[in-house]
Design brief:
Elements lengths: L1 H17 L1 E2 L3 E2 L15 E3 L5 E3 L7 E7 L4 H16 L4 E7 L5 H10 L9 E2 L13 E2 L1 E5 L5 E6 L5 H11 L2
Parallel strand pairs: 5-6
Antiparallel strand pairs: 1-8, 2-10, 3-4, 3-7, 5-9, 9-10
């Protein structure tokens, strides 16, 4: 039993550093012609209004799947919030919290961290994020092209990576 614990400790350490959960690393969807359409993904804004990625067709999207209890997620939020503030005509940043308590968990967190100025969202219902495929760890960042197709995804927080991926997606037609 002690040997199992010793073997498991490095695995857990890597999992916590790369994201809250297992399955981190790159999971790119492939070439532009094989990209999966994800525009049907739906979520709720703070007023309870149902929204979908389809509303943003023509813009590049950064979708950040996170939770209030996840240390790597919290570490990534200042970068996510800064990009969200820069967004507008060409791109949009959508941080979607997967906290089990929904707004009951998210609103107090946002209030306590008001300096971030983060506008967050939650899934519209169970399974609302299924079009993204399995999300095995958080944070998971997804880059969606202007036509609503998944361009790139990864789990874990890597400072500066989202901005580089966004720049590359914005250069694409």
């Amino acid at each position: 039993m002690i040997q199992v614990r010793r073997c498991l400790l490095p695995v857990l350490t890597v999992a916590l550093l790369s994201g809250c959960g297992f399955g981190g690393g790159d999971k790119s969807p492939g070439s532009a012609s094989s990209r999966k359409l994800v525009s049907q993904v739906s979520f709720l804004d703070a007023t309870g209004q149902r929204r979908s990625l389809a509303e943003f067709t023509g813009k590049v999207l950064v979708v950040d799947v996170w939770a209030t209890w996840c240390p790597p997620c919290r570490a990534s939020l200042p970068e996510v919030a800064a990009l969200q503030k820069k967004g507008g005509e060409t791109f949009v940043v959508l941080p979607i919290s997967v906290d089990r308590g929904g707004w009951g968990d998210v609103k107090p967190f946002l209030d306590a961290n008001a300096k971030l100025g983060l506008e967050a969202f939650i899934p519209a219902e169970s399974g609302a994020l299924d079009a993204f495929g399995s999300i095995g760890g958080i944070p998971t960042t997804l880059i969606v092209d202007r036509r609503g197709r998944l361009r790139e995804r990864w789990s874990g927080y890597y400072p500066g990576r989202v901005e580089k991926a966004l720049e590359a997606a914005l250069k694409e037609n």
